[in-house]
Amino acid sequence: MAKVCYGCPDRFPACQDHCQKPEIIKEREDRKKRYEGRMRELEANELIVDRIRRARKK
Predict the structure, then answer these.
(1) Which ranges constitute the DSSP H helices of the chain?
(2) Cα–Cα distance for residue pair 38/35, rounded to 1 Å
(3) What sign has the CA pseudo-torsion 15, 20, 21, 27?
(4) pLDDT of 3-12, one tens digit each?
């Protein structure tokens, strides 16, 4: 997010939390989507690992 804010005249410490500029909002949404995708992938991998561990116990 720093690239979008670099050189902004309205910039102040922690302004990214409150900024309503469309570029910042879009970047927040993109980051949230990437995070959710990673979490879904980690959850799927965890299920696979659990199945493998259960199969090895038998």
Answers:
(1) 2-5, 22-57
(2) 5
(3) positive
(4) 777 888 888 8
